[in-house]
Each structure stands twice: as structure tokens, then as C-alpha cells.
Design goal:
single chain, 157 residues, mainly alpha, 3 helices, 0% strand, rod-shaped
Length: 157
């Protein structure tokens, strides 16, 4: 009889242990699953997201780190939009001037060789300005992609 009781108690203890382990695993993994779902939304492009998962200190630290990353991504996107607006403006100005001078030449307003030479020099200078802007954009792109090699030199100030 003692043998049968020991077998029944052992089975009950094993079953209860399995349920307790599953319950504890669920409690631990629930905030991690919430964080994971939020991270997937962030990766899909949704920036208005907040990471919230209560639980252990490590989970709170992960929430804080991911919320900081979201804030930095928002700043970066804002700066990129401002950069594109500035680049568009800086490229549009010389193009407008070039078009204006080409129209003047086309309409025959440049009736003397001196005026023609001045307009052509202005067009050339504006095209050179655009070329410099484009070179700076390529340099920025290289710097951003870390494809440039740097060589540091000591200078005597």
C-alpha cells in the first residue's frame, strides 16, 4: 500500500511541477513576447511605438534601451527630411539660373559677343556649383556607409 501511495504522490508531484513550470515560463515570456511584437512593428516602419513590458530588471532595461532607439530613429528621420529639403533647394537655385540664362541666349537677347560670353560663363559657374554639391553628396554618402578609409595625421597647433 505504501508503494502505491508513493507512486500516486510521485505522479501528482510531477504533474503539478509541470503545470508550475509552464505557468512560470508564461509569466517570464509574456513581457518578452510583447517587446518582440513591438520590435516587429518598429521594423515594419511604425515609429509611434512604445516598448512596455513589466517584469524583471533586465526587461525594464531592454524597454528603456528600445525606447531610446525609437527616439533616435525619429531624430534621424527628421534630420534626413531636413537634409533632402536643403539639397532640393540648393540644387534648384543653380538650375533656375541656368535655365534663365539659356532662355536669354535662345531668345537672342545676348546680341553682343561680350554678353554671350558673360552668360556662358555664368552658366558654366552655376553648373560647377551644382557639380560641387553633387560631389559633396557623394562624399556624404561614402561617409554614411563607412566605405572611406581614414588616415589621421598629427598636427602642431
Amino acid at each position: 500500500m505504501l508503494k502505491h501511495q508513493l507512486i500516486y504522490i510521485s505522479i501528482i508531484v510531477v504533474v503539478v511541477s509541470i503545470f508550475v513550470a509552464i505557468g512560470i515560463g508564461y509569466l517570464i515570456s509574456k513581457p518578452i513576447k510583447r517587446i518582440n511584437d513591438s520590435a516587429k512593428l518598429l521594423a515594419s516602419g511604425k515609429r509611434e511605438i512604445s516598448f512596455e513590458g513589466k517584469g524583471y530588471q533586465e526587461i525594464d532595461d531592454l524597454n528603456n534601451t528600445l525606447n531610446y532607439a525609437v527616439a533616435e530613429l525619429k531624430k534621424t528621420e527628421k534630420l534626413q527630411k531636413e537634409l533632402l529639403a536643403n539639397i532640393s533647394h540648393d540644387l534648384k537655385t543653380p538650375i533656375t539660373a541656368i535655365k534663365g540664362y539659356v532662355e536669354v541666349i535662345r531668345d537672342g537677347v545676348a546680341d553682343t559677343p561680350e554678353k554671350m560670353d558673360r552668360y556662358i560663363r555664368t552658366i558654366y559657374n552655376k553648373a560647377t556649383d551644382m557639380d560641387k554639391l553633387i560631389d559633396e553628396l557623394f562624399l556624404y554618402s561614402k561617409l554614411d556607409s563607412n566605405s572611406m578609409n581614414y588616415s589621421f595625421v598629427k598636427l602642431n597647433l
